[in-house]
Amino acid sequence: MYLRLQQGVTIAWKRKDGVASETALTSGETVKSGVLTVNQNKLASSSSGMITYICYISYYDSETKNTINITADITYTLVKNAANAKLCTVSSDTYVFKYGYFSGFSRCFSGSTDGTGSRG
């Protein structure tokens, strides 16, 4: 998915390992044009087996003359020994941007014994 950032839109990402405090992204986690890319198996080295990525979005609404701040997050949990497990969750109670510029997305994974999953 590609997101074209409009003038006045800022996107920042942070992460949490389990219930620990938020921290900056680590090696293997990069952001380009607001899109987070993770190119390492971070769950394998997670002490809690659960990683949450938090997205902070801010944009100026010229109609209301206000800056709008929105937070969205996605959590990944390591499941071991679940060769046939399947899970897909899509939930949203609002659009991220007015007028449907970007309404979020979700990916589905089929279980695998190595913890990396595969797209389903």
Short description:
This protein has strands spanning 10-17, 29-32, 35-38, 50-61, 66-77, 86-87, 109-110, 118-119. The chain has 120 residues and is mostly beta strands. Strand 7 and strand 8 (118-119) form a beta hairpin.
Give me some keywords for this one.
120 residues, mainly beta, three-stranded antiparallel sheet, disordered C terminus
Q: What does this entry look like structurally?
A:
- The chain has strands at residues 10-17, 29-32, 35-38, 50-61, 66-77, 86-87, 109-110, 118-119.
- It is built from no helices and eight strands.
- Strands 1-4-5 form a three-stranded antiparallel sheet, with no helix packed on it. It has a three-stranded antiparallel sheet with strand order 6-7-8, with no helix packed on it.
- It has 120 residues and is mainly β.
- The model is unreliable at 97-120 (pLDDT under 50).
- A hairpin with a 2-residue loop joins β2 and β3 (35-38).
